[in-house]
Design brief:
The chain is an alpha+beta fold and 239 residues long. The protein folds into two domains: 139 residues; 77 residues, TATA-Binding Protein (2-Layer Sandwich), CATH 3.30.310. It is built from seven helices and ten strands. Strands 1, 2, 3, 4, 5 and 6 form a six-stranded antiparallel β-sheet that branches. A four-stranded antiparallel β-sheet has the order 7-10-9-8, covered by helices on one side. The two termini are 23 Å apart.
């Protein structure tokens, strides 16, 4: 059963706090216990050799460790996160974190080699130009810090044992102000605000997600959780 993660946590003040929170969320989504501290997986050492660098950013090490830990502990995670990885992408002088469909095409979410000097480097979207069979940076899409990319990606792609529904939000702040005082709304975690209960999680996006979607409210709930046990205003707004 999903237990609230965000209402019992302070907004992260540093990278260590961010990744502790992300690991806790991932463990809740897959009903597994993940260590609070990451380790350095072998894939990152091979990545350093492939790229010819002596240092990888803290967030990139955390990402690689998180994905490996999840896939080792959960068959659900192995299936849901099949396209999530940490590998060299020489074509664009980058490190690929995920490959998947974007609108009507294919894309890679990557950290550019030139950004590896940052502890929490930005993640850009490289879309496939099918006629030329090459990838190109989609400059119209946001480049979110890797911590934010990881949080969005888990919420959108993880947890196949959860149902979901969502809708666009023209005025996210107005929607939050309209909620009854009985519904707790967390502090800001990047561009997301959370509402939680036993077995359900709702989050409002105030910016642009890694796939280009903007200002959205999404509700995820476990199979068996009754919609009548979720605040009606969230259910109606998400449907």
């Amino acid at each position: 059963m999903y237990d609230p993660v965000f209402h019992s946590a302070e907004p992260p003040q540093n990278l260590s706090d961010w990744w502790t929170l992300i690991r806790r969320l991932a463990g809740q989504l897959y009903d597994v216990t993940l260590p609070d501290r990451s380790r350095v997986p072998p894939v990152t050492r091979r990545l350093q050799v492939r790229l010819g660098v002596t240092h990888l950013p803290r967030s990139l090490l955390e990402w690689a460790s998180l994905i490996e830990d999840l896939k080792r502990r959960s068959d659900w995670a192995s299936e849901d996160l099949e396209t999530f990885h940490c590998r060299a992408f020489p074509e664009c002088q980058a490190v690929s974190l995920r490959a998947g469909s974007l609108n009507t095409g294919w894309a890679q979410w990557c950290v550019a080699v030139t950004d590896l000097g940052e502890d929490d480097p930005p993640v850009g979207v490289y879309g496939l130009i099918s006629k030329k069979n090459v990838h190109s940076l989609r400059k119209s899409l946001p480049r979110l810090p890797l911590t934010q990319f990881a949080l969005h990606s888990l919420l959108d792609c993880a947890g196949s044992n959860y149902c979901w529904m969502g809708s666009n939000l023209d005025d996210p702040e107005g929607f939050l102000r309209s909620l009854p005082a009985t519904i707790p709304v967390s502090a800001s975690f990047g561009s997301l605000r959370f509402m939680e209960g036993e077995g359900w999680l709702a989050y409002a996006c105030f910016g642009t997600a890694p796939d280009g979607r903007k200002k959205r409210l999404t509700l995820r709930f476990r199979d068996g959780v009754r919609l009548r046990d979720i605040p009606k205003v969230i259910v109606i707004r998400s449907s």
